[in-house]
Structures are given as C-alpha cells and as structure tokens.
Records
---
Amino acid sequence: MPKILVTGGTGYIGSHTVVELQQVGYDVIVVDNLSNSNIEVLNGIENITGIRPDFENIDCTDYVNMDRMFEKHAGIEGVIHFAASKAVGESVEKPLLYYRNNLVSLMNLLQLMPIHNVKNIVFSSSCTVYGQPDELPVTENAPIKPALSPYGKTKQIGEDIIRDTIHADKFYKAIILRYFNPIGAHSSAKIGELPIGVPNNLLPFVTQTAIGIRKQLQVFGNDYNTPDGSCIRDYIHVVDLAKAHVVSIERMLKNKSKENLEIFNLGTGRGLSVLEIVNTFEKVNGVKVPYRIVDRREGDIEQVWADPSYANKVLGWKANETVEETLRSAWKWELNLERKAKES
Ligand code: UFG
C-alpha cells in the first residue's frame, strides 16, 4: 500500500488519522517535533492497529532534516499536513512563532515535494477562515473574512500559498479541509485529546471539570443572539474527521478529480450551543459539570456551522457519529487518563 507522510501525527487529529490510514492498509510515516504531544501516543496507535508507525522527531520548519527524511523514506506518495501551532490566544501574544511554525513548515513541504516526486497534499484548514458568516449554514463559497488572530491568518495564508503554488505548477494536487470543531476520542479510549496545561478548548475543559481537575467551567457569554444566549458551533467527532483524510488522500492517489485543488468543509451540519453541549454531556455520562456564566471571550464568533453537502456528495463522506456518542467517547478517554495517572 502507498506510503503516506503524516506531519503532526502524534497530535490530536493526526493520531486518529494515522489509525484510520493504517486500518485500511496505508504505510504511515509520522513526523512530529513533540512540541504539543507525547511520544506515548505511538503506543496508543500501536495498541489499536497492531502497527507502530515509523516515527521521525523532526520540526517541519527544518528544511535540511525534512529533505533527509524524504530521502530516507523514499516513495512517499502523499502528505497529510497537520503539524501546526493552534492556540488562538497564544498566537496573539507570539505572532512570529505562529507565522514561522505554520507557514515555513508548509513552504518546506511544498518545496520538497517535487524534489522527491510527491504530488499530493492534504492541508488542515479551519472554519475560522469564514469569520462570522453572513449566511448559515456556511458553504465553501462563503467569503473569506479578515481573520481575528495570527493563528487564523496562518490558515488563510496557508490556503493562499497552496493556491498560488498550484496555479504556477500543475504538478501538485491538494485538498484543503476546513475543520469545524473536532471533539471526542477513539472508541477504544487508547488515543484522544491531550492538552498540555490548562485547556483552551471547550471539551477538554468540560471533561477535566467533570473529573475534578478543574473546579468550574466558565461559559463565555450568555448574551449572544442565539436561542439560549451561548455561542453555537458545529462539533464533529474526531474519528469522522480523521476518516475524511483517508478519503481525500485516496481521491488524489486514484485521480478521481479533474481539479488540482479542492476545498471541503468538514462538519456535521448541526449547530450546538455551549450550554447544549454541557447539558448533553451531563445527561449521557451521568456526571455533573459545575459551570458559571462569565463575560464573552474576546474574538469569539457568535455562531457557525457547516453546510457539509459538498463534501458529502463529492467525497462520498459523511460525519456519522451522534453528539451523544461523541460526548461519551470524550468522557471515556478522560476516565482512562485518570486510571493511567493512578497506575503510574
Ligand atoms: N468555551 C467556553 N468555555 C471554555 C472554552 C470554550 O465557553 O472554557 C466556548 C467558546 O466561547 C466557544 C465554544 O466554547 O463558544 C468553542 O470554543 P473552542 O475554544 O473549543 O473552539 P473555537 O470555536 O473557539 O475554535 C478555535 C479556532 C479554531 C480552532 C479551534 C481549536 O477558531 O480554528 O479553536 O484550536 F481550530
């Protein structure tokens, strides 16, 4: 089976994608600098699939070592590029770190791909490129709005870099995937989201509060123009998201598209408020999530959810998991982390 390079393959979405790729037979090489992930994730992957992916501890901004890596693993046919910094708040404080990590890594890959005869790349983008859309649900044709953070800008510029590179040279094929909000964990609870320090994102904060690591969840605002006043997002099971990468890489390898560049929204098409997430989490898992309403968080978008019909039709992919099952998987993962912490 073809060799696929997964950058950021020990990270949250990356690790779930490695599992899905291996399970359909791909030979996976993981490149990660472990800046926001743990080497033990490889054990989790191996426990699920029975295969330990080849691993290279390299920073994707390091051109020379990336070149050597392509040489060593000659025959790579596709790249799935997750490796990036992703904390919105941190990006405001350290913009250069974000521009360097997120853009230099992408440019290195695009430069090295033709040298090593690698045509295909899947790029992790985000619904953040739409800002607050004028129309909901949001389609791929919605205008790109000015980004509110350097992180968001790196995703917009990353898309532009790919677009311009392909415009200049039809050697490349790319699929840009715009993720909505991935949550949950693998059903085995052997891999999941492992935030380092205090979580920025909703779900890890919810699970850590339910288990007692955090005292109270802060719900950022209940005065938005939404039915219950809290913000609305399209929460998608991370395994559903991971599967879309397998379909995308296959689409390029099998030349199923005439286009060299395609863009897809990856969401469920269902918008849920912060309070709906908290209430459903409590109900399906039989646990309490103490919370209080606080001020709005700067930069938050009021409401956004996907129109995934283009991805559904063209990729033949659909997010299948219910939100209940997704929230159960998140809790199972948190319980498993607690059990492991007690054992060690
Ligand atoms: N929220 C809370 N309390 C928290 C954390 C979040 O109420 O402690 C609310 C937020 O205000 C927001 C919703 O939960 O309404 C979701 O927030 P997240 O931080 O989980 O995710 P965002 O929708 O803000 O998405 C951002 C970026 C994405 C990026 C994602 C993951 O916009 O591009 O974080 O890093 F992919």
---
Amino acid sequence: MSQTQSPPTPDYEVIVIGAGVAGIYQIKRLADLGVNATVLEAAGGLGGTWYNNRYPGARFDSESYTYGYSFSKELLEEWHWKEAFSGQPENLRYLNHVGDKFDLHKYMQFNCRVDAAHWDEDQNFWRLSVSDGRTLTCRFVIMALGLLSIPTLPRLEGMADFKGRSFHTFDWPHEPVDLSDKKVAIIGTGATAIQVIGEIADKVGELTVFQRRPNWCAPLNNYDVDDAEMDRIRKRYDEIFETCLRTPGGFEHEPDRRGFFEVPREERIAMWDRLYEEPGFGIWLQNFREIFTDEDANAEFSEYIADRIRQRVEDPETAEKLIPRDHGFGVQRVPLETNYLEAYNRPNVHLVDLNDGPLERVTETGLRTTNADYDFDVIIYATGFDAMTGAHDRIDIRGVGGERLRDKWRERISTCLGVFIHGYPNLLMPNGPQSGSASTNYPRGIETGVDWCMDFLEHLWAHGYDRAEVTAAEAERWTKHVEQMYEVMLMRKAKSWFTGYNSNVEGHEEGTIRYLVYNGGMPKYRKALNDVAEAGYKGITFSNSADSIAEKIA
Ligand code: NA7
C-alpha cells in the first residue's frame, strides 16, 4: 500500500493574462468566488484597446449602451453614456469606473508582460515568465489577450532615420500631440485611419493620406445622449441585451430576412437610403443577408455605396480613387466614419494612391514613393494589427511535450470553440481565435465566453479535477466547422484581418486564408457552447493530479 503524496500548490489557482474588457470581467467573476487569482497586464493600466488607442477620433462603432457590460444592474443604472458612440477617453473612464466599483484593481499587476507560459506536466500547472523577472505558477491560465493588441508597422527601410515624430496609432502618445501647422502623413485607410482622418483634417496644417487599397465605409451618424435619452435607454436595457443575444452580430441590428431579389429594386434603394442616415452598423447588419454571400447582390449594393462616395467627394478623380475595386461592401470589417469623405474636399488634405507608385522607403525628412519625395513633420502609421493570434505568438506558449503554440498555429489554427487548444491543458480563452466574439459586438461575446469558462471551472472544481484538456477529435470537429463556414462567405476572398491577411507579418501575406473567426453568429455560437456543456463537457478529458500521483507510486 502506498500513501498519496500531495501535489505542490501553484502560486495562483488562476492567472488571467490581459486587463482589457475581457480580463476585467474575468477577474470580477473569479473574485466573486474568492478564487486565488491575479491579472497580469503588460500596459500601465487596465482597459486594453481603450488604454492603448488614444489617437484622435478613437471611439466605439458599437452603440455605447450595447458595448458596456450587462452583468450589473447597478452599473447600468448609474452610468450615463454621453454619446451614442462613445470616444476613447470616456470609454477608459468607464472601464476604470468598473474597476473601482468592484474593487478589481487590487487583483491586477500592471507593467507585467508575460514572455513565456510553459505547461509543467510533472507538476500539472503552468509556469509563467514575467517581464519583471518573476516566475509565477498557476493551475489555470486564461488568455484575455485581445483581438487587435499587436500593432504592425510596414516593412520599410529607413524608418529609424526619420527626424520628425512618428508612431503607430496604437502607440499614440498619452500627452496631447500638437498637429496644428504641421505637415502630417498617414499611412493606411482602415477603420483606424478613417477615424483619425475625419477627426484631424481640419486641425492640421497639411494632411497627406497614403492609400494602398480603399475601404468601403459608412456614416457613423453619432449623436449626444441627453438625460431623457439615457433614461429611455435604461428602461430598455433588458430588451436591448435580449436582442443582442438573439441577433447574429450581437447588436440591436437584425438582418432583413427577405430574399434580396424578391424585394423590388425601388424598395431596396428606399431601405438603403434610410439605413445610410441611421446610426451605426445598420447599413451593414440590417441589410439583406445575401450581401455577405451572393456576388450579384453584393455588387448592386456596393454600387449604391460607390454613388454615395461620388456624391460626397467633390473631385471626381479623388472619388473614383476612394472606391474599392477588389472587394465588395461588407466583406471586410466596415469602418464607420464622421467627415471622412468630406475631408478630401479640403484644400489641405491630399490623397496619394500607392497603386500609382508604392512606398519605397522612409527618409530623414519624410516618405519616398517610386514617384516622388514628400516632406513631413509627423508620420502616423495606421497600418493595422497582427490580428487574433499575434498576441499569442508573442508569448512563448508551450504545451504538452514542449510543443510551441506558435509552431502549431503556423501550420493551421485549431481550437475547440475558440476556448480550448488540444495539447494545452488548463488553458482557456474566453474570446480566443475561432470564438464567436471576434465577428460580433465584442463585449457581448466576451460576457458569453467568460460566463461559459466560469461554469466550466466551477464544474471542474466541484468534481475535484485539476486537469482538463480537449481531445484532438473535438478540436478537429470545431476547426473543420469554422473552416467550412468561410466557404459560403464572400469575405473569404478579401484581404483583411478576418482572413488573417497582413502584408507586414511574415507568413500572413496574401495567399492563404487563416481561419481566425467563427462566422456562424452569436446565437449559433452560444448553442455550440451550450451543447458541449449540456453533454457533460463532451470532448474534454478531466483528471486529478493527486489520483495520478497515487497511481504512479502505487
Ligand atoms: P486595418 O483595417 O488592418 O487597416 C490597415 C491599413 O493600413 C490598410 O488600409 C492597409 O492597406 C494599410 N497598410 C498596412 N500596411 C501597409 C503598408 N506597408 N503600406 C501601405 N499601407 C499599408 O487596421 P485598422 O487599425 O485600420 O483597423 C483594425 C480594426 O480596428 C478594425 O477592423 C476595427 O475592428 C477596429 P491594405 O488594405 O492592406 O492594402
């Protein structure tokens, strides 16, 4: 007969990596249960996206009242959103308010970048190396790393030689940047650049936009939320969140379920005229579903938006340059804009089409294309992110047998529900690649993911398990499903972060689709989560290290 040896206790039961919207709610739920948990955050404060992106014009594209957390009635009652689509400073204030209200800061450690996370098969826990030199151990690691948290810069020569100021929009300085009377360049015309350009066009000396591919965009139609409007919103909160759970995108916008070609053209146009004037993503998500799947329907609607561009941009040549030709409306993430197109009507705003001559290098005084040299005081890189897997790749994550996640995902991104990875026990992602969060109203997906992970952990703790891992078969089932979803979507043909494209990251250039997002919409994603839970966490193997140690020495 042998005695059971107690396994060593890790420093924490749970370590959450990232103090953004997901990490904040995740630690709230863990703290409520009294779990020994902490959050490690690389930045100097909480907020994630809203801590970092301080560029002018940074704001929600989701209605503020559908973006905020839904978990606390008291919070919903007391918070007054000042704008329908709230700006970064207010968003960060909100998240700090949540942190203060629920006393969460005490669980968070800032300026702590996690460099490595290694699974220790003998001890049955994770060992994390932190940038401050510490090694911390935990039974479970929860990745709340954010979708777009690794900014990427062009691979251009001479970037360090530039004598003026330059920064990626993600790293916009925390102190105010005076752009008045300055000659400013902005590279990129994605959702970020479109917000920046609309905001700064009338505040800078000269603004030159370097555009490689134009992006379809639509008006944000933002408005102030006064006391009366906020009262109306508060009364509707239950209904708002119920609707968000029901709609594919997790918004109040419900797709028009009539067949595109069954509705007479005049009626289609009348509907688009109305949606174009309405706030938010309605023009994208309240539209006919064929916009996403049918070439002809998409082409007709894209032509409608092209005409809107021609109406709003005075110079016909500039207008044509702003109309995308290589993809249709809505197959990439649609940027919402305020005064973006009108910016090009200003004499101090210039558009350089990089199709006429690509960027060659950065010089000491500005930018050189194959056609010309341009002098600038400031260069703004609005050049996007190593989306979704980028933040995982930056951590040396090693699972069973020392396998590196970076290597595994280089071959093929594979998860189960976007929550589990085969070969990486006790690692959870409430909003990971291939989860429902990425393609939907993010915080709605986050609350779903965090709640599900908490149920999962409680199940595990209640049964005395301390090791859980998804089977290869279950991960394959989900990954195949995610891949198949792309087949019906026009988005599979677009060069955007939805398909894992990024010209600035080796291996992510044009050519292969990287299956990053689950495209089935929120209700189907929630059903998939519930089905797995209701089947007793089918496809997850559970064990207890004390038992296995007893077995080993029996
Ligand atoms: P995006 O949408 O990835 O846009 C990046 C933009 O930068 C896009 O216009 C790119 O052109 C351009 N880009 C990137 N690299 C280069 C180089 N090397 N030369 C010229 N132009 C370049 O990122 P955003 O930050 O705007 O938006 C990200 C998300 O934030 C958005 O989807 C929302 O969810 C919020 P390209 O199209 O690749 O030709």
